[in-house]
Specification:
This protein is mostly helical and about 375 residues long. Helices cover about 70% and strands about 0% of the residues.
Length: about 375
């Protein structure tokens, strides 16, 4: 996740932007030069990652083209390609966790794969639902989509259709775009380098003490702010560089603290991840969603999958059940949305406060450390 904070990586990215600006007279410069940059960056970063990523992308492109053209048993081929990709990610994660071993495994293979597989599946959806009419894409654009360096390891998650539309446009970055992109990168670096680094020191210092309920509550609030600056800071850097390289990267954080329901919160916090799971999971079950109970069940499934996507542990599973149950309850009670213009300011902000409290109670699960999570909860309960 932190490779964009490396000075050499930042210099390389700004160098790529400069090359694009100097070659804007060549209409296909964005597509070909970005391809060369993506591949060269991975090769310099890790030869093993370069080979693994290239093989993975090329095999999936063959599957993508096959799905575009095949006519017999398309649904089963579609599902088989998705299951194959999910199985690969699960296998690599289990190897990384040490559940089982293989002599050819290297932990570097997990770098970027968790996000790349989501983009692979999005491309398969386009191939399946659009087909020959508009689903076919050149290998050049497919490779760029999956290996686009600014979003390679932590998103935001691009939609294949949107990326293809951007690829067809010539490289045009105005002075205003350049200024906005640079400002966004600086903002992201400030969040990651200054705020997150200093806040992490404070978090670890307090965590080492004997925790009282007040200490634990402070750690939960502090950690909530810390991960917001961490995640949103990375997104700022990715969005800024994407803009400078001629691609529109979607926003990942849309004022999540002003979300009056948990359903709306997940449309605003890590928005592209929530959108991806809703778009791709809901689409499968949309014809069967004839009742609120069915909708609540799908909400539970989506949040459990998001939890397991973050990590294979009982903590993330419980986190998913917790959020899924509450979002399902909102659906059953018809309380999934609150329109700000139709309610009083006091009621709106009260609902926002309740939503933030719900999120806060489970936020430390994002640390991924079972011992840390249990210590904080024990301190909160005075145990």
């Amino acid at each position: 996740m932190s490779y964009l904070l490396n000075m050499y990586a930042l210099v390389a990215l700004f160098g790529m932007v400069l090359v694009l600006m100097l070659t804007r007279w060549w209409r296909p410069n964005k597509r070909w030069l970005v391809l060369a940059f993506n591949l060269l960056f991975l090769l310099v970063f890790s030869q093993k990652l370069f080979v693994f990523s290239l093989v993975y992308v090329l095999l999936n492109y063959l599957g993508y083209l096959f799905l575009v053209h095949v006519r017999s048993g398309r649904r089963w081929w579609f599902l088989a390609l998705i299951v194959g990709n999910v199985a690969l990610v699960c296998g690599v994660r289990l190897l990384w966790m040490g559940v089982f071993e293989h002599p050819y495994f290297d932990a570097i293979y997990t770098f970027g794969l968790i996000y790349t597989v989501l983009k692979v599946i999005d491309a398969l959806y386009l191939a399946y639902y659009v087909g020959r009419e508009g689903g076919r894409a050149p290998l050049l654009d497919y490779v760029n989509y999956l290996l686009f360096i600014p979003t390679f390891t932590s998103g935001p998650i691009l939609k294949f259709r949107d990326f293809l539309a951007d690829s067809k446009k010539p490289y045009t970055v105005s002075a205003a775009d350049f200024e906005a992109g640079v400002k966004r990168i600086i903002l992201g670096l400030f969040k990651k380098v200054v705020l997150v680094a200093s806040m992490t020191v404070v978090f670890k210092s307090v965590l080492e003490q004997d925790l009282t309920p007040l200490h634990s509550l402070f750690l939960m609030v502090w950690f909530y702010a810390l991960i917001y600056f961490d995640f949103s800071g990375y997104s700022d850097i990715a969005i800024g560089f994407g803009r400078l390289m001629g691609y529109t990267i979607p926003e990942n954080f849309k004022q999540p603290f002003q979300s009056p329901t948990l359903t709306q919160y997940w449309r605003n916090w890590h928005a592209t991840l929530g959108d991806w799971f809703r778009d791709h999971i809901y689409m499968i079950f949309s014809r069967q969603l004839s009742s609120r109970w069915a909708g609540a069940g799908v909400s539970m499934l989506i949040m459990v999958l998001i939890g397991l996507w973050h990590g294979f542990s009982w903590l993330y599973l419980l986190w998913g059940v917790y959020h899924g149950a509450l979002i399902g309850l909102e659906s059953l009670l018809n309380k999934s949305t609150v329109q700000r213009r139709k309610v009083s300011a006091a009621y709106f902000w009260f609902r926002c406060a309740v939503t933030q409290l719900i999120v806060l109670l489970a936020i430390v699960v994002y640390s991924g450390n079972t011992e840390t999570v249990l210590r904080i909860y024990k301190g909160l309960l005075g145990l």
